[in-house]
Amino acid sequence: MKKVVFSALLLLLLINPTKCFSWGGDGHRIMARITNQNLSSSIKDSLAVYLGSLNLEDCSVWMDEVRSDHSFDYLKPCHYINIEKGGVYTTNTEENIINKLNKVIERLKHRKLYSKDEVVIDIKILIHLIGDLHQPLHVGYGVDKGGNTVNVQFLGKETNLHRVWDSEIIKKENITVDTCNLWLSEYSKIKSEKSDIPGWMNEGRAYLEQVYDIQNNTIDQAYIMKNKALIEKQLLKSGLRLCVLMNEIFLTSGK
Q1: Is 154 helix (H, G, I), strand (E, B) or coil?
Q2: Long-range contact list for 35-44, CB < 8 A, 24+ apart?
Q3: Beta bridge partner(s), residue 218
Q4: 8: alpha, beta or left, given left = phi > 0 and alpha = psi -120 to 50?
């Protein structure tokens, strides 16, 4: 009887895969490693005051790891923002990725007002959401839930557009820190820029036309190759921009 129940549950999971929330674990860890490669030793020391033995890679996936814990349900709307096609971002008080990032950045700049545990959670949120901000479908359209309801065939397999961007292309093309770093000479100047959360969001939205350029709801090798470079560039930029934020947070307000 137990085998029958287990088989039924497994079949249900295969038919109804869980909703994707962000870059898959591989994408977030790639971004975190890029950040770690480009952080100064002084910033690493400042982070260590709070993170101890925790590394940036583990911190980067925390928000996804706790999504089954209902005490963190308040974080679920913070992975994304919905702006319909043709719309523009306007300041609001909604729970979304922009407002959550602004909030945790401000809190981290005044971290001495908060407990160590609160600061650690804010650091984990910051690391994760900067990654999400650079996944175009996390700043996409509410009408299709950021591509989650766009069913596609990925090389003969049933899936959805959001999952393709979160993880399928990364895994299929073996995107790694090294492949992302091949674009470093093109984007190294990012490290000297100032942070711009809405600007980074709008940059990602500018790629949505390319993201949705699908023929017959089929993700073929031509689509994959066209978008592999974009994913690599977005992961690289997110890692470098997290460095920008870490510098602004820890260099301007001490440890």
Answers
A1: strand
A2: 35/127, 35/239, 35/240, 35/242, 35/243, 35/246, 37/177, 37/181, 37/239, 38/191, 38/239, 38/240, 38/243, 39/243, 39/246, 40/247, 42/250, 42/251, 43/243, 43/246, 43/247, 43/250, 43/251
A3: 153, 215
A4: alpha
CB 152 within 8 A of CB 220: no
- Domain at 22-253, CATH class: mainly alpha
In angstroms, the CA 126 to CA 139 distance is 16
SS3 213: coil
Separation between Cα atoms, residue 50 and residue 41, nearest integer Å? 15
Q: What is the block-wise mean pLDDT of the chain (255 residues), using blocks of 10 residues?
A: 42 40 84 98 97 96 95 96 96 96 98 97 98 98 98 95 97 98 96 96 98 96 96 98 97 65
Question: Which are the contacts of 67, defined by CB distance < 8 A and separation ≥ 6?
Answer: 21, 75, 76
In order of 96, 170, 253, the CA distances from 30 in angstroms are: 24, 10, 28
Residue 181 three-state SS: helix
Q: Give the up-direction half-sphere exposure of residue 167: CA atoms within 13 A in the CB hemisphere.
A: 13
CB distance 126 to 28 below 8 Å? no
For residues 80 and 208, give the distance between their C-alpha atoms in angstroms, rounded to a whole number: 14
Q: Coil, strand or helix: which one is 127?
A: helix
pTM for this predicted structure? 0.90
| CA gyration radius, the chain | 19
